[in-house]
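F.,

This is the one I mentioned.
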């Protein structure tokens, strides 16, 4: 009987051999359908095999690299999740593959639990494509069309074969020169028609392809690119707001999840295999590292790990203003710490940034931010914070990045199922931190609690529940749709009033806390659901009615770390943490 971890899908282990060890090469091959321990996993695999693995990392985050039979780095997953990490790829050739995990923050001690690999699914890789000759349906989310493409289509309809080839070649030459997406004006001055493009490889224009946009916006139908008939041009046009800041990938010819006979794969299983086909937009020269800044831009690993960047200016000429500039090295200090809570009986990782220079006791404002690993890797927040300080945009301040022990713990701790997590932060972690770092401010008015998504919900709850410790709330895309699960006898029906947290605020005395709510205009609901925009606007209105000092930032973006980095700067400034350059209009 196969291990339960393989129950997610069928396991075809024919031709697979494995060994987990620290040595550079395997000595004794083993079966793959059993737990394997060690920082390095060797796999002998046939060509065309879909492999999905789980790495159990305890309460730590690990960077994982995949090397192919020729030694080339094929994939890299950044250390952005504590505990369990899911990995996968399809083998392009037969041979020896190597998965290698490392903790970039801590050196494992002698008592550290070994890393454990578990094969979840192994099966022949099959592309999830429409039937030969089928044309994917037009996405309902894209009723508009690019005037440039409409003009090209008209020209192609009147051209001979040789002239058609020339027109298409000239089109791609123009696209290569200006980069994608195409940006064209719309009658409404606050919107831009944004057209994403993909070019079918030579000789495959007449084949069936599935290409969709993967980004931080929800829709009731996939953002699927359509073929311009008779060409190798695939396109998707969307009306988007001016000022948009977003990162995206294209999912090209995704794999089919190998569900058992008679069973349809779940939405999560489909997402797992589709993500294996996600890649940068090859026609967009602007790249966001997405937690992988050290990868060579032209490498196979970077093509999958990094994302394409799109910054549409709020005014002026229509061009992609995304910056690819690397952040300078830190001059301040960044300490990676492990904190053992007696109240919660768990260990968690922390990172403390202190700006350069000497600081008097109690002089440094403190930003406490959740989702430590993602903000270290994807946002590089300490480096960004230091750059903002150097530019005079904010005053010198410290930041404490707080992790949850595992991904499962994140869903238990950040939403306020109870006050245990907040009480631990206020009465145990902050006193411990101030005792070892006297420069940190002790007045709640100089402490900002911040986070995004569930972290935004947690920051709002902590400001409301523990105002004596957290005098400022910086909530980004807060998940204020959340509510405690009611008892069976009190189960809410689908039409009942929601917005549980807003009710708590409305029914309680006003606390001495300043609020800033940032949320993206793309964070709207679908199929009649309320979206994060609606939830956050409702909370803003309740806070205003209760007499709180509250600011809001409806930024042009989505549920996206690429948008949240600049939203943090605006939030700090709105809460009163502005440097001299911000006070004089960046003079």
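My design for it:
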């Amino acid at each position: 009987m196969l291990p339960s971890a393989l129950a997610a899908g069928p396991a075809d282990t024919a031709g697979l051999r494995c060994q987990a060890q620290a040595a550079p090469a395997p000595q004794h091959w083993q079966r793959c359908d059993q737990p394997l321990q060690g920082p390095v996993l060797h796999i002998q695999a046939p060509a065309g095999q879909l492999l999905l693995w789980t790495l159990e990392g305890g309460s730590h985050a690990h960077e994982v690299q995949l090397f192919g039979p020729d030694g080339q780095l094929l994939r890299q997953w950044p250390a952005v999740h504590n505990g369990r990490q899911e990995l996968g790829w399809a083998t392009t050739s037969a041979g020896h593959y190597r998965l290698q995990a490392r903790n970039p923050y801590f050196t494992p001690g002698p008592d550290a639990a070994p890393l454990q690999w578990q094969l979840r699914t192994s099966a022949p890789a099959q592309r999830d494509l429409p039937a030969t000759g089928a044309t994917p349906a037009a996405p309902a989310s894209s009723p508009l069309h690019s005037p440039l493409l409409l003009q090209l289509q008209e020209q192609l309809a009147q051209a001979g074969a040789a002239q058609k080839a020339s027109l298409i070649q000239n089109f791609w030459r123009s696209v290569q020169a200006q980069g994608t997406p195409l940006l064209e004006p719309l009658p409404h001055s606050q919107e831009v028609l944004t057209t994403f493009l993909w070019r079918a490889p030579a000789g495959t224009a007449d084949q069936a392809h599935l290409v969709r946009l993967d980004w931080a916006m929800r829709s009731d139908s996939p953002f699927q690119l359509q073929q311009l008939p008779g060409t190798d041009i695939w396109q998707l046009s969307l009306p988007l707001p001016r000022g948009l800041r977003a990162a995206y990938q294209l999912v090209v010819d995704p794999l089919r999840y190998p569900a058992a006979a008679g069973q349809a794969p779940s939405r999560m299983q489909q997402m797992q295999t589709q993500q294996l086909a996600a890649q940068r937009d090859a026609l967009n020269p602007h790249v966001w590292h997405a937690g992988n800044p050290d990868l060579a831009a032209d490498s196979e690993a970077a093509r999958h790990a990094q994302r394409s960047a799109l910054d549409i200016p709020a005014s002026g000429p229509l061009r992609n203003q995304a910056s690819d500039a690397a952040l300078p090295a830190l001059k301040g200090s960044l300490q990676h710490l492990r904190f053992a809570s007696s109240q919660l009986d768990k260990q968690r990782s922390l990172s403390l940034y202190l700006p350069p220079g000497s600081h008097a006791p109690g002089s440094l404002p403190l930003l406490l931010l959740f989702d430590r690993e993602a903000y270290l890797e994807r946002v590089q927040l300490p480096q960004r914070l230091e750059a903002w300080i150097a530019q005079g945009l904010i005053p010198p301040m410290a930041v404490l990045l707080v992790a949850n022990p595992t991904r499962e713990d994140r869903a238990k701790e950040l939403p306020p199922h109870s006050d245990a997590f907040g009480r631990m932060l206020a009465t145990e972690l902050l006193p411990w931190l101030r005792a070892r770092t006297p420069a940190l401010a002790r007045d709640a008015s100089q402490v900002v609690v911040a986070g995004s998504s569930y972290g935004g919900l947690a920051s709002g709850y902590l400001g409301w529940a523990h105002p004596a410790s957290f005098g400022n709330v910086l909530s980004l895309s807060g998940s204020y749709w959340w509510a405690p699960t009611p008892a069976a006898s009190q189960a809410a029906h689908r039409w009942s009033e929601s917005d549980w947290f807003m009710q708590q605020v409305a029914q309680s005395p006003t606390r001495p806390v300043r609020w800033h709510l940032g949320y993206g205009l793309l964070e709207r609901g679908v199929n009649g659901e309320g979206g994060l925009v609606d939830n956050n606007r409702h909370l803003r209105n309740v806070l205003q009615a209760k007499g709180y000092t509250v600011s809001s930032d409806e930024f042009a973006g989505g549920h996206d770390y690429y948008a949240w980095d600049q939203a943090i700067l605006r939030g700090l400034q709105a809460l009163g943490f502005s440097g001299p350059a911000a006070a004089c209009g960046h003079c």
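The first helix runs from residue 147 to 157.

Talk soon.
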